[in-house]
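Q: what sequence does this backbone want?
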């Protein structure tokens, strides 16, 4: 079909082996994992007209990942305070980190997604990783999610000590930079229209970071606070590269 990018794994047996390599265990209910990899741009339609895609699993996985990371950090940094732990958790679960982890794991090669500009923005990879945690939780439970985080991410892809030392409050950095040059800074944030109505559909927020009235960065996500930080981080990257002066 023209204009469609369908990166799926054909054949049930092949899919089982692919998920075994990815997860480190055999799936019991492969349908959860298939759904976790299905982007809304290629949603399936239920008999009642509702859509099947990974957004609900993403919503579930987002909460599970927050709790898992908090638990891991609490035990790893035994002598550090609440502020440090909160900041470090935000660095791990922020969209840019999850996007990179998803790409490092090869989730982009397994996704089922329409090939168009909007659906291929980088954020979908981190969203898919969150959906994968939701699938693991439904299939195997919380402890399986913990083992996946520890064995497949923390031991192979993410250095907690290095993450803890990175900058986290990009809003403060971009604010200080704007004050230095007497620029006007705004973070207008609004809720996007929902494609599906209902209590199970989480709100999605978009932040546009404006400097002197001009949009220089955007971000989308489930938390107003997080999308503002994400937009600020993107703007700060442009400051560091010299693109934004």
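A:
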């Amino acid at each position: 079909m023209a204009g469609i990018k369908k990166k799926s794994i054909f054949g049930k047996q092949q899919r089982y082996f692919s998920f075994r390599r990815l997860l480190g265990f055999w799936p019991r209910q492969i349908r959860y994992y298939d759904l976790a990899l299905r982007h809304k741009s290629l949603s399936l339609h239920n008999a009642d007209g509702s859509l099947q895609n990974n957004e609900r699993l993403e919503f579930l996985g987002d909460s599970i990942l927050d709790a898992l990371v908090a638990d891991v950090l609490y035990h790893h940094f035994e002598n550090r305070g609440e502020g440090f732990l909160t900041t470090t958790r935000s660095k791990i679960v922020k969209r840019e980190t999850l996007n990179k982890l998803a790409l490092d794991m090869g989730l982009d090669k397994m996704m089922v997604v329409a090939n168009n500009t909007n659906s291929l923005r980088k954020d979908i990879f981190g969203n898919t990783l969150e959906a994968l945690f939701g699938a693991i939780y439904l299939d195997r439970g919380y402890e399986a999610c913990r083992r996946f985080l520890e064995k497949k991410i923390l031991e192979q892809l993410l250095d907690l000590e290095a993450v803890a030392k990175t900058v986290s409050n990009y809003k403060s950095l971009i604010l200080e930079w704007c004050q230095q040059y007497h620029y006007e800074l705004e973070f207008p944030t609004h809720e996007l229209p929902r494609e599906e109505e209902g209590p199970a559909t989480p709100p999605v927020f978009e932040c546009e970071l404006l400097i002197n009235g001009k949009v220089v960065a955007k971000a989308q996500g489930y938390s107003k606070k997080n999308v503002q930080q994400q937009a600020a981080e993107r703007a700060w990257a442009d400051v560091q590269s010299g693109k934004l002066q």
